[in-house]
């Protein structure tokens, strides 16, 4: 599906000719000049009225099956396009997508900012019975906050955010482009839904990729102080029920975390990783992007994960390997160092 209109209303529609001009691309395949495209969408959620893109070979399978009406691709992928799809061909599809998505959504970051006599709590916001809102907190248009919540001082809730019942949100927190379940705790300074770290290179420097996904946090999640959960770039960032995230953890865009996970302080998970159920990560773990960490995996503190990890594994070290192998390597290095010193 295209970006959630609750958070990301499209600015207008574009013809294939207008899109080609924006993308600085050539048109290949069937092109209906009077068809108007209404939005952008990721490959596996696109339809005939939306524009998608392919910039990572890992997603060629989704590309071959996509329902997108138009896709931005390199020439070498045109022959693999589904029947009936129009291709916008360019050597830099990620940069082209940045320009197209920016045209559909030019004002993504313009959320509610009261000035002067504007109310801190927008009149359209809905706040459930028994909820307490701390002084200085700003609540934007169409926000929905459930019953019996407690919101700390000087927090911020952007347009359209949804918060379930019995949530506890600490002072100086911010929540944007997000839907949060019930019985969730966000401690002081948590930032949910900020822009993910996505950009395309160009001769004029980096071009920001509009981040058009949400953050979806299920019930009974706890997120520690000053943790940051980036919103998705297109797909959503998802935190499963019962997961516990410690202080100062960074979750990148599009990351999907399963149920009942434990993620200890100063861990960083790069974009588009899929973390299974019951995964445990020690402090200062680093996980590279686009990896699959299966159910029940345990990762020792200060490990660097650069490849997929099978379910039930315990790994450690950098690069992370089965923990027994890691300890063998440490022992070998210790012996080499000792022998060299003799």
Commentary on this structure:
- With 342 residues, the chain is an alpha/beta fold.
- It folds into two domains: 14-104, MurE/MurF, N-terminal domain (Udp-n-acetylmuramoylalanyl-d-glutamate--2,6- Diaminopimelate Ligase, Chain: A, domain 1, 3-Layer(aba) Sandwich), CATH 3.40.1390; 177-342, UDP N-Acetylglucosamine Acyltransferase, domain 1, CATH 2.160.10.10.
- Helices cover 13% and strands 25% of the residues.
- The chain has four helices and 38 strands.
- The chain has an eleven-stranded mixed sheet. A nine-stranded parallel sheet has the order 8-11-14-17-22-25-28-31-34, with no helix packed on it. It has a nine-stranded parallel sheet with strand order 10-13-16-19-24-27-30-33-36, with no helix packed on it.
- The chain is flat.
- The model has no long low-confidence stretch (mean pLDDT 95).
Any key phrases for this structure?
single chain, 342 residues, alpha/beta, Udp-n-acetylmuramoylalanyl-d-glutamate--2,6- Diaminopimelate Ligase, Chain: A, domain 1, UDP N-Acetylglucosamine Acyltransferase, domain 1, 11-stranded mixed beta sheet, 9-stranded parallel beta sheet, 4 helices, 13% helix, 25% strand, flat
Topology summary:
Layout: E1 14-15, H1 16-23, E2 26-28, E3 36-37, E4 39-40, E5 50-53, H2 60-65, E6 70-73, E7 86-89, H3 93-104, E8 126-127, E9 132-133, E10 138-139, E11 144-145, E12 150-151, E13 156-157, E14 162-163, E15 168-169, E16 174-175, E17 178-180, E18 185-186, E19 191-192, E20 199-200, E21 207-208, E22 215-217, E23 222-223, E24 228-229, E25 237-239, E26 244-245, E27 250-251, E28 256-257, E29 262-263, E30 268-269, E31 274-275, E32 280-281, E33 286-287, E34 292-293, E35 298-299, E36 304-305, E37 314-316, E38 321-322, H4 323-340
């Amino acid at each position: 599906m295209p970006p959630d209109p609750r958070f990301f209303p499209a600015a207008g529609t574009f013809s294939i000719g207008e899109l080609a001009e924006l993308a600085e691309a050539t048109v290949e395949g069937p092109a209906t000049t009077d068809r108007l495209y209404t939005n952008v969408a990721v490959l596996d959620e696109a339809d005939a009225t939306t524009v998608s893109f392919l910039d990572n070979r890992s997603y060629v399978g989704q590309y071959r099956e996509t329902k997108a009406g138009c896709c931005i691709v390199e020439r070498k992928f045109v022959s693999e396009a589904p029947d009936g799809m129009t291709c916008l061909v360019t050597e830099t599809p990620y940069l082209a997508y940045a320009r197209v998505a920016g045209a559909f959504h030019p004002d993504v970051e313009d959320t509610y900012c009261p000035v002067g006599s504007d109310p801190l709590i927008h009149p359209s916001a809905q706040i459930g019975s028994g909820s307490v809102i701390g002084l200085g907190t700003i609540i934007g248009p169409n926000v929905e906050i459930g019953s019996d919540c407690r919101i700390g001082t000087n927090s911020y809730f952007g347009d359209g955010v949804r918060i379930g019942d019995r949530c506890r949100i600490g002072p100086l927190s911010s929540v944007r482009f997000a839907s949060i379940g019930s019985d969730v705790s966000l401690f002081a300074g948590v930032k949910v839904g900020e822009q993910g770290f996505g950009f395309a290179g160009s001769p004029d420097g980096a071009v920001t990729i509009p981040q058009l996904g949400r953050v979806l946090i299920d019930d009974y999640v706890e997120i520690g102080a000053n943790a940051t959960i980036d919103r998705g770039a297109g797909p959503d960032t998802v935190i499963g029920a019962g997961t516990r995230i410690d202080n100062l953890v960074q979750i990148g865009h599009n990351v999907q975390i399963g149920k009942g996970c434990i993620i200890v302080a100063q861990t960083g998970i790069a974009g588009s990783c899929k973390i299974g159920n019951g995964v445990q990560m020690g402090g200062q773990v680093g996980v590279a992007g686009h990896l699959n960490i299966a159910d029940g995996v345990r990762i020792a503190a200060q490990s660097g994960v650069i490849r997929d990890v099978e379910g039930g594994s315990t790994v450690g070290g950098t690069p992370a390997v089965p923990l027994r192998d890691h300890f063998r390597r440490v022992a070998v290095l210790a012996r080499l160092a000792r022998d060299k010193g003799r």
